[in-house]
Amino acid sequence: MKGRKAAVTALDGALSKAPPPPKWLPAHGKAEWRRVVPQLVSSRKIAEHELGTVEAYCLAVANMRQAEAIVADQGPTYVSPTGELKRHPATMLVKEAVEASRRLAAELGLTPASRGKNSGGAIGNDDADGLGDI
């Protein structure tokens, strides 16, 4: 019998319980993990094989916060040994970490614009691509 597939209520392979953050993550990374992973798990949008992307996202957030703390403490500029006013190197670290965290957040469906686009979870049962379980 042909027809539409039944609505998928849970993605194949989606995690049902939030794993603890990796021990190697810095403190801000662990805090971000604890903030976003339960949300991804409850919406059934993350599978175990996708946790590396979450780790990278959390590390980018931690790096951003660490670099921003340096800029807040030392300022966005410094005077070089030759007397020139230069941009503090940590400002570039902030910029790179912000860009990485935004890109990874979008991949994970954590931004308002990407939230509806991310079906996440695992391979199969995707009616949107017209291929289903192939």
From TrEMBL:
UniProt-annotated stretches for the region Disordered: 1-27, 111-134
Pfam families: Terminase_4
Protein name: Phage terminase small subunit P27 family
Organism of provenance: Rhizobium grahamii
Lineage per the UniProt record: Bacteria, Pseudomonadati, Pseudomonadota, Alphaproteobacteria, Hyphomicrobiales
